[in-house]
Structures
1.
Amino acid sequence: MNLPTLSGSHSWNFTRMGGIFQAQLNTVEDLKQLNELDPKLWVALSCPVNDLEIDQRTLSLIDFDADGRVRIEEMLSAVNWTLARLAKPESLFKGGDLPLNAIQQDDEEGQKLFASAQQILTNMGTHEATHISVNQAANTDKIYGQSRLNGDGVIAKDATEDEAIQTLIQEIIDCLGAENDRSGEPGITREKLDTFFSELKIYEAWWTQGEIESNKGKDIFPLGETTPDAFKHFIAIEKKVDDYFARCQLAEFDERAQAPLNRDQSLYKDIAAEDFSKKREDIEQLPLAKVTAGSSMSVVKGINPEWKVRMQALCEKVIRPLGIGSGDRLEIVEWKQVKARFEAYRKWRQAKPETGVEQLKVQRIRELLASGMRSQLDTLLAQDEALAPQLKAVDGVEKLARYHRDLMIVLNNFVNFSQFYDESQSAIFQAGELYLDGRECSLCLRVRDPAKHAVLAGLSRGFVAYCECRRKDAAEKFYIAAVFSAGDSANLIVGRNGIFRDRKGLLWDTTIVRLIENPISIREAFLMPYVRVGRFIGDKLEKWAVSRDKEMQKQMETGVESIASESNQTTDVKTSNVGGVAGMLAAGGIALGAVGAGLASLFNTMKALTWWELPLVILGVILMISLPSMIIAWLKIRKRTLAPLLDASGWAVNGRTLISAKLGRALTSRATLPIASHCNFDERRGARSAFWAALGITVIACLVITGYLLFA
C-alpha cells in the first residue's frame, strides 16, 4: 500500500482512516506548511456556515466573501492570519481562552491588538486577567455601550444629547433609510448626510422657482403652503369626477343612454349575497354617483360608498378653501374652475426633482439649510471616524480569540476528519444523540429538507432514519438524518417515536418521517430470509383464516334463512350443509395426509444419514438460505460511507470516508444491563407463563418423537 507523496520539504504524517490517508495536524510547522498540502488530500473542499455544531460567528469570520460557505483558500487565509498574530502559536492546539502573552507584539497591528485586549478586560472589570475569552471580546454592550461613538462610521441618535441634532438624525433616517451601527442602533453615515443636504438644496431651489413664477403673476400656489397636500386629494379623484360629468352630458344628449350608463341592476343581484364590509373593486368601478341628465352633482348625498371618503376630502381640502361652489352641489363649470386653478401648479410640479426629502415641509427644509446643524453632524462623524483604527483592533481581538478557541476544531473537521473517527469526540456535523428502539445513534446530521437530502444520501449504503424534532417551547421544528449502524431494522418504521438530545443537552420529541433502508448488520442479514418466510406464511394464514371466516359466516346466514322455508327445501339445505362440512373435512384430511407423507419422506431420508452427516446437512441448508443475503449485506456494509450524507447537507467531501463495522457499532450502541444489576427471571405467574410452559413441553415432545423415528 503506497502512501501519498507531496512536493516540498515538509514531512507530513498521514493516518489511514475511513479508507483514505488523512493528513494529521500535530505541530505548528504543519500549520505553516498547510498551503503546500495538495487540495486533493484535504478531506473536505468546502462546508456550509450553518447547521454545524460550532459557533457560527467563527465560520462567518473565516468566510470572508460572505457567501455562506467556507472553502480551502478561506481556511488558509484564516490560518496564515492567526499564525502572524500569535507569538506562541502552539497554544492553538490547547484552544480555549486567548493568553495575552501569546499575542504577537513585534509590529504596530500586534501592539494595537494587545492594547485593545487589555482595554476590553479593563472595561469588563478584570484588568488583571491574563487570558481573554470569546464572550469578553464579543461583548459589544460592555465594549461599545459606554461610548456613544464606536468607530464604525455610523452615528445613532444617542451619539449626542442635543435634542435638535437627535431630531435631525431621525429625519434623515425617515427620508433616506437607516444604517445600523455596531450596537445595532439605526443611524446615519457621512454619505447619508451629504445626500440629505444635497437633496434639501435641490428641493428648496425648485420651490423657490415656483414662488418666483407665482410672484410674476402665475397662480402656482392657489392654496399657499397647503397647495401640495390639496393637490394630492385633487388628483386622487380627478378622473372619477371627469368620468361622472362626461356620463351626465351623454345622458343629457340622449335619454336612452342613462340606464346603461348606470349599469344594469343584474349586477346588484349577483353581488347581493357577498361581503360588503371589505373594499370592493367591482363597486369602485361603478359611477361616482347616479348618472342623470344635467350638469351638476351633489357632493354630500348619493356618492358611491367606495369614493365617499375621497369626495369629502376633496370638498374640505380643495373646493371650499378655493371658495368655489355653493357648498352642497358642484356644477360642471365650477369643476372646470377647480381644475384651472391647479393647472399652473401641475406644470410646475412636473419639473419637481425626485428626492427623499419631499415629506418635510418647505419651512423645515429652509430652517435646516439656514442652521449650523450640518457642521455639528460633520464633527460627530469625524470623531467617530477617528476611532476607527483603535476599534478595528477590538474586532481583531474578537477574531483572534475565536480562532484561538475554534480554528483547530474546524481544521480537524476539514483537512481531516480526525474528530469523527475518534470515538471519544464528536465532529462538528454531529448534531446530538437519538434514542430510539433501545439504541443510541450518535451519527445525526441536521437537514433542511428530508426529501431532497435522501436523493443523494441513499448512496451512503447506510440505514438512514429522517426524524422530525420538536419541543413545546420551541417556535420551529427541525429535521435530523440518523444513521443506524448496529442492531436490526425490524422495529424501525415511519411513525416510530423517540427522543433526540442536541449538543446543548436539550431534549426534543422525535418521530420518524422517512427511511432509507439498507442492511444494518450481518446478523440481521442471516435472519432476514427466515423473517421473510415467516411473514409470508403469517400473511397467507391470516388471509386464509379471514376468507374461511367469511365463508362460514355466509353459510350460517344461509342456514338461518332456510329455517323459514318449506320442509323439502329445509331438507335440501341441511343435506347441502352437511355435504359442505363433510367436503371441508375431507379436504382437510387430504391436506394433512399430504403433509404427513411429506414429513415421512423427509424423516426416511434423514434416517438414512449417519449421525455426523445430519448436522452437516442442516448447516448446508442454513447456509444455502442465508449466505446470499449475508454476502449482499457484507458488500453494502463494507462500502458504507459518510461522504454522500455530508454532500447532501452542502459539504464538498473529497474522499470516501468509509464507516467500518467497528465504527458503526460505536456510532449506534444498543442497551446493555449494568454490571452490578440483579435480574429476576421468575415469570411463572400469569397466563403468559403458562403459554410458554405449554410451548416448551410441545417442543420437547416433538424432538423426542423425531429422535425415535430417526434412530429407532
Note: Residues 522-562 form the longest helix (41 residues).
2.
Amino acid sequence: MKIRCLALALTVLLLAGATVASAHDGEKLGTVRFPVSCAPAVQPDFERAVALLHSFWYEEALKAFTAITTADATCAMGYWGIAMSVYSPLWAPPSAAMLEKGSAALEKTRGLTATPREKDYIAAIDTYYRDHDKLDHRTRAVAYEKAMEQLYQRYPDDREAAVFYALALNGTAAPTDKTYANQLKAGAILEKVFAEQPNHPGVAHYIIHSYDYPPLATRGLVAARGYARTAPSVPHAQHMPSHIFTRLGLWQESIDSNRASASAGKAYYTKLGKDAVWDQTLHALDYVVYAYLQTGQDKQARAVLEELGAMQKSEPESFVAAYAYAAIPARLALEQHRWSEAAALSPASKTFPWDRFAWGEAITSFGRAIGAARTGDAAKARAEVQKLDGYRATLVTAKQTYWAEQVNIQQHAAAAWAARAEGKNEEALKLMRAAADLEDATEKHPVTPAPVVPARELLGELLLDVNQPAQALVEFEASAKREPNRFNGLFGAARAAELSGDVAKAKTLYAKLVAMCDRADGERPELRHAKAVLAK
C-alpha cells in the first residue's frame, strides 16, 4: 500500500510539476518536473536543485544536492546531483579535485535503494567519471552522451531525460562540424519539450546553446527573450540570452542582459561575504564590453576595464575568468584602433595564475603583435609571433587541441600584420587569408562572445591597407555573415565601398553605422568620417 501511495504521489508530481519559487526567499528558478523515490519531504528541494543545475548555477546546485543527502542519506539521486554539479559539459573539463568529488558521490550510491530509472541516471553519469585517470575528457563525455541517448530512448515520457540528453549532445558537438548535426538534433528535442514546458529553465537555456551559431541563431531568439523571465533569480539566466543577441548583432539587448547579470553576480558574492569577484560576473562583463564597443559606447567600455582594476582576485580561478581578464583589455585596444595601447597590452589581472592558461597568455600576445605591427614595430611584432608559437606548442603538448588551433589562427594573423609592417604585402595577404580560412572552419567556444577580432575582418582591413578596396569589401561582407553589425566590420565595408566608387552602398552602410551608434558616448574618427560622408 505504501509503495502504491508513493507511486501515486510521484505520478501527480510528474503531471503537475513544481514551480521552484518562494520557499527560498521568493527566488524564481523556473519549473522542473523530476519525481524521485527519495523521502517525500525532499522532493521540492530536489526539483529546486535540478532547476539550479539546469541554469549552470553549479555552486548553488552543489549546496542544494548536498543538503538533500544530509536530510535523506539514502537518497541516491541526491548523490547523482552532486556528481552532475561538478561537471560542466559546455565550459571546461573538471579539475582533478572535482573529478574525485564526483566519483566519491557516485560511490555513495552503491547499495542504496533506487528505481530502475534512477539507476539508469546514475549509471549514465558514472560513464563520465569512470576511469577518469585513464581516459581523456572527450572520450568520457561521448560515453556519457551515448548513455543518455539510451536513457532517453528507454523512457520516452521522461522529459528530464530528453533535456539532459540534449545538453550532452551540445557538450560533444565538434567545433569543426559545419552541418551542426548535434546542435540541430538537440534543438529538435528541446523544441518539443519547450512547447509543453515553456517555463522549464533548462529547455530555454539549452535551446540558446544549441543555436549559438551564425546560421542557426534566429531559431534561438524566442527562447533567448524568455529565459531571463523564466529564471530571473539566476545571474546566468540574465546573461545567457546575450549569446543569441550577440550572434544577431542586437547590441542594446545584449548590454541590458549583461548589465543585469553582472549586477546580480556582484550581489550574490556580496551576500556570501566574498572578497573576490565571481567568474560569472567577469563573464557578463566581457560580453557587455563587446557590445559597448560595437555601439561606440567607448567610455562605458573603458569604465568596465577600470572597474576590473579592483577585481584582481576571481573565484574560482577558472577558464571563464581567464578569458574575460585577457579578452577585455585586448578588445578595447584593438577595437578602438589604439595601436600603441595594444602593443603594450597586459591582462586585467596581474595576480591571476596565467601559467595554467596558455591560450589566455596568447590573447595578450596576439593583441601586442597586432598593435606593434600597426605602429610599424615589425621586430616587436615578430617577437610576439614567436611567443604565440610557444603557446601553441604548449597547448598541443597538453592535448588542448581546440585552443591550440585558436592560437594557430592568431599566430597566422599576427604574422600577416608583421609581414605588412615589413612591406611584404603578398606574404601578409597569404597569411591573413590562411587565418581567415582556418577560423571559418571552426567555431567560437561556447563561453566567448566572438573572436577577439574576427580574422576575416582583419583580412578586409589588410586589403584596405594595401589599397585593394574592392577585394576588401568582399571580405568585410563575408565576415558580416558570421559576425553581423560589428562597428569595424560595418565601417570597413562602407569605406571599401566608398573607395571602390560605390557611393550609394557606402552611404547605406555609413547610415547603418551611425544609427547603430545612437548611444555613442565618444566619437571615434570612423564615426566622424561616416557622418561627414552622409552630410555631403
Note: Strands lie at 18-21, 28-32, 277-278, 314-315.
3.
Amino acid sequence: MVSGVPPRDGDATQLTVEQEVDRLRWQLAISAGGVGGFDWDLVTGHLAWDDRLIELFGYERAGFRESIEAFNDRVHPDDLPRVTQALTECAETCGEFESEYRVVLPGGATRWVRARGRALAGGSDGRAVRILGAAYDTTDTRDADARTSRVLETMPSAFFSLDRDWRFTYVNAEAERLLDSSRAELLGGDVWELFPAAVGTVFDTEYHRAVETGEPVAFEAYYPPPLDRWYEVRAWPVPDGLSVYFLDVTARRRSQAEAEVAHAEAEQARRRAEEAADRLRLLVRVGEDLSATLDTEEAVGRLAQHLVPALADWCLVTLVDEQGALRDIGSWHALEELRPVVAEYRRARLSALGERAPLRRALRTGRPVTVERGATAELLDVLSPGAARDLLRQLGPESLVMLPLRARGRTVGLVSLFRGPERAPVPPQDLLTALQVADRAAVALDNARLYTQQHRMAEGLQRSLLTAPVEPDHVQVAVRYQPAAAAAQVGGDWYDAFLTPDGSTVLVIGDVMGHDVDAAAAMSQVRSLLRGIAYSSGTGPAAVLASLDATMQGLAVETTATALVARLEQVVDERARDVTRLRWSSAGHLPPLLLAPDGTVSALAAHPPQLLLGVDPLTRRSDAAITVDRGSTLLLYTDGLVERRGSSLESGTTRLQDVVAELAHLGLEDLCDEVLARLVPADHDDDVALVAVRLHPLDRPRPAEAGPNRVPPHPPTPVTPTT
C-alpha cells in the first residue's frame, strides 16, 4: 500500500503477473547457466526444487518428494551437521546462507555443490518464512585443486606457502618432515611465532626482501635446536604471499670428511629440486596468466611461450570449437629466427593435415599421442603437398607429443610439443607437468565458454526487458542499448518511453548498481515498478520517484539505483504557441542534455541534487520544469556513455555536449549512432543506455525520418481509486 491507498484489484493482479514473469525469466536464466534453484517454505516445510537441482542431487522428477528430508538424505553425513547449522542460522537471523558440501549420488559417487540463499521475512514479527537460493556443481574446480596438490606432494623437496600475514597455507609431506611438525600444527599458524628463532635472522630479512621487491631469493641458513639443521632455501613472491622450497643441507655443512660426497649429493638434490621448482613455477606462471586476463583464449594461446623451451623446442596451441572445427591460436620457438617459420607453419598446417595425422588421432581419442623418433617423416606422410611440407622440413622435429585439453568430458583444444634431434623425447616427469598445464588450460577454456553462454543469456534477458518506445503525434523517440565488451558482464542500465492515460509522454533512464545477472534481474523489478506507478498514478516525476522508493522498501527490493523521470506535457495554449513543457526529477542520475533548434546544447541540472533510489524512502523529492520550443532534442543517458578511467565525469559530460553540438544537423537516429561511435570505445567496461527525443513542429506533417506514430491501440481510461 502506498500513501495509505489500497491497490486496485486489477493493479495487484497485473503486478502479480509481472512478478511471475520476472521470476520465470530468472528461473530460465539460472537454468541455462547450469544453476539449480530452491524455495523452502519454513511455515509449511515444503521445499520446492527445480529440475536442475533435482539432477544435481541425483533424483528423478517422477515420484520425487519435495522436502528437507530429501535434501538431508543426499548430503554427505560428514557435511550434514555443518550445512544444517548454516541453514538454521540463516532462518533464525533472517540473513544469508552459503555453504559448499558433498552430495552422495546413487551408487556411492560424490559430487561437490556450492549453494547460496537468503531468508525472507514475513508478518509483523519479522521472522523468516522462506529461504530462496541456488546451487551449482563445483566438482571440476575441486578436482583441479586436487591435481595440483598431488604434484606438490610428489615433489622431492620440501615446499610450503605463506599468505600476506605470514601464516602457513600449505605444507607438503617433505616440509612436515624437515620442520619436525605436523600439518595440523603448522597450517594457519604464524611462521614467526612457530619458529621464533628465525626472527632477525637471514630467514627474516630474505623473506621480507622477496615480498617487498617482488624478486625471488635464495640462501643457506642454520636454524638452532630443536631443529638444529642447515637449510638451503629458495623463496619467490606470488600474488597471495610467498612460496618457499628448501633442502636440509646439514650433512654437507657438518661433515668435512665427506665434503666431496656431501657436495655431490647436495648438487644432485639441488638439480632435482630445481627441476621440480621449474615445473612448479611453470604451473604457477600458467595459472597466473590464465587468471590475469578476461580474454581466456588469448591467455591459452600464450601457453606455447610458457612451454618453450622448458618442455619443447617449439609448440603449437589449437582451439576446438563446439562443432569440432580446429583453429591454431598460438605458436612459439626457442630460437627467435625460427619463430616466423613456426607462425607460417601454424597458418598452413591444419588445411594440409590428413585424417591419419597425430593431431587428429589425439582429437578423436581424447588421449595423448607420442612419436619418439622420426616425427618429421611421419608428419610429411600425412601432409598434403604445399607450403606446410616445406616449412616442416625447415623445422625438422625428431619427436612430438599431442596433448588434448579436456574439460567436462569434451576436448576443447590441443597442445603440440616438438623436440629436435638434440633433445631426448619428453620424459614421463615433463609429460606429467605438461598434462597438469593442459588440465588447467582446458578448465579455463571451458569456463570461458560457459561464461560466454551466461553473458549472452543475461544480455538477452536484459534486452528482452527493454521494449520499443512510443512515438506519439510529432514526437520522435530513438533508443539505444549497448552492452559492455564481451569480456565484461552485463549491467543494470535501462530506458523507457510510454504514454500515460492523460496523453503525456513519460521518459525514463536508469542504472541499477552492479554488473551481473543479479543487476539485470533487479533492473527488471525496478523498471516494472516505475512503469506501473507512473502509468497508474498520473503524477509528476518527483512523486513517481518517491512512490517507487517507498514501494522498493515495502517489497524488499534490496538494490540501489539512479533514475531520471521526465514528462512531456502540453496544454491548449502551449500547443497553440508550438511549445512543450518538460518536467523532470532526478534520483542521483546524470543531467539530461537539451539541444535547442539554434544548435546550442545545455545540461538540465536539477537543484538541489537528490538521493539515489534505495537509500532513504523518506527523502524529499522535487520537480524541475522548463518550456522548450518545437524542434528541440532531449538526450537522456547513463554513465557508461561519459565515464572513463583516468578522466573526470565532468570532462566526459563536457565532451558529450561538444559532440552533440557538432552533430546537431543530423537526423535523430544518425545522431544517436554517431554519439555512440565517437564516445564509446570498443573495449568499454560498462553498458550504455540512451534515449533521444526530438519535438518536431506541429504546423507541418510528421517528417518521414521520424517514421509512423507508435502508440498503444486503446489507452485505458484512468480509474479513480476509492477509499
Note: The domain at 143-291 is CATH 3.30.450.20 (Beta-Lactamase).
